[in-house]
Specification:
Elements (H helix, E strand, L loop, with lengths): L1 H9 L1 H20 L3 H8 L4 H29 L2 H21 L3 H15 L1 H16 L5 H28 L6 H20 L19 H10 L2 H30 L5 H20 L1 H4 L5 H21 L10 H21 L5 H29 L2 H22 L16
Length: 414
């Protein structure tokens, strides 16, 4: 394990990806745990309206991510793509800080955040590019370490925000904090970017956004075996997204807790995720990715069931342990799984991961909207947990047939 850490941080390209995603995690964790409270409790969107906005945002984010991932594979313009996404994030959060209106929230979710969201997948594309260029790096560990850096900032930030909220800070001030952090990330990108962050040129690659590689990439993303697998891991990831939406609503409305409790719980779950993310490569020596995801999904489904049953905030603190351990596996192993579907194209592999990430938001929005029409927040949690378990079972079944066309493998790690 120590050797893997040393190898990872000695690689300049991987190091810049880890630093950038670590900083972006602080910005994300300042806002995300409280977004549903802001939308529903403060801006007074209905649950259905909020779900529709989430759904449309997920579709737009997915389209943007695919386009940027294929474009960066073709052009190597990782720096410019990241800079644009970060600038969009700064503008989005600054608008939310200064203008507390439903119309601004719609612009935030449907115009600016789809652009800003493309940066997330590009950090993982950089980590996979580093592993492709440096054969001494372990690809799965590189992806897990990058994800763990993001999670570490999530473990730190929500508890700090909880302290600030307890002292009287308004939730809209969180967007101002996120905007300032975005400025810091943009400075790091622009001042510290390594010159070697370019993919190797392939014979036959054409220059131009509308030429061969772009449409070839879209065709590869539409392959049925890949589509099925991405759909299933998206359903599993959606359980984590659903919890992010439900946490604040459950704590405030069902468990008698406070906004500060939301921060403490979110930070505790993130803290528990870190060790299993880093130990994922050890688990994968003995079981396949699909099997490990099945185990984690069952545990996470049990956690959601427990959250739905609870009636007081004091009953759920111990649930942080199974929530964090299982979420850590789901969030990290799905990254390596998606990237393995296109191992020779880091940008496209990153886009597949991002497609899974944003497609999961489609599932989340659908579950939340449909569930809100027929049940309460507890029932929505149970529906989401059941969906994750079913998807994990289907992935184990589907993964018995190797994905020959992509070079991915289903077996244990080498």
């Amino acid at each position: 394990m120590i050797k893997l850490f040393a190898q990872s941080f000695s690689d300049r390209l991987l190091r810049i990806a880890i630093i950038c995603i670590f900083l972006s995690g602080f910005a994300s964790a300042s806002v995300a745990p409280f977004l549903s409270i802001v939308a529903i409790e403060r801006l007074e969107f209905s649950e259905f309206s909020f779900a529709i906005i989430q759904l449309l945002s997920a579709i737009l984010c997915m389209i943007a991510s695919i386009c940027v991932g294929v474009y960066t594979d073709q052009s190597g313009q990782y720096k410019n793509a990241l800079a644009i996404s970060i600038f969009a994030y700064i503008l989005a959060t600054a608008l939310m800080y200064f203008a507390h209106a439903q119309f601004i929230f719609i612009i935030y979710m449907l115009v600016l955040m789809p652009i800003a969201s493309t940066g997330f997948s590009q950090y993982f594309a950089l980590s996979r590019l580093a592993a492709n260029k440096n054969t001494s790096l372990n690809k799965d560990f590189s992806s897990s370490l990058t994800r763990a850096a993001f999670t570490l900032s999530w473990a730190i930030t929500p508890p700090l925000i909880a302290i600030f909220i307890a002292q009287g800070m308004d939730l809209f001030s969180l967007f101002g904090i996120a905007a300032l952090l975005g400025c810091l990330i943009l400075f790091v990108i622009w001042s510290s970017w390594p010159n070697e962050a370019k993919p190797p040129k392939k014979k036959g690659d054409e220059v131009g956004f509308f030429k061969g590689p772009f449409f070839k990439g879209l065709k590869e993303l539409a392959e049925l075996p890949i589509f099925i697998r991405i759909t299933l891991i998206s359903a599993m990831i959606s359980t984590n997204n659903l919890f992010a939406i439900l946490l604040g609503l459950l704590v405030i409305n069902n468990l008698g807790g406070t906004e500060a409790d939301v921060g403490w719980f979110a930070g505790g779950v993130a803290l528990m995720e870190i060790p299993v993310m880093l130990m994922g490569t050890i688990f994968l020596r003995y079981v396949s990715k699909a099997t490990l995801l099945f185990i984690a999904s069952v545990v996470y489904g049990g956690f959601l069931f427990g959250m739905g049953l609870a009636t007081h905030i004091n009953q759920v603190w111990l649930l942080i342990i199974p929530a964090g351990l299982s979420a850590g596996i789901i969030l990290s192993v799905t990254i390596g799984y998606a990237q393995d579907l296109k191992p020779d194209n880091p940008g496209l592999g990153g886009s597949l991961m991002s497609v899974a990430h944003f497609a999961s938001r489609f599932f989340t929005a659908a579950i939340f909207a449909g569930g809100a029409a027929i049940t309460d927040y507890s029932g929505i949690a149970w529906i989401g947990g059941a969906l994750g378990v079913i998807a994990a079972i289907l992935l184990v079944i589907v993964d018995r047939k190797p994905l020959k066309s992509s070079g991915a493998h289903d077996g244990k790690q080498d």
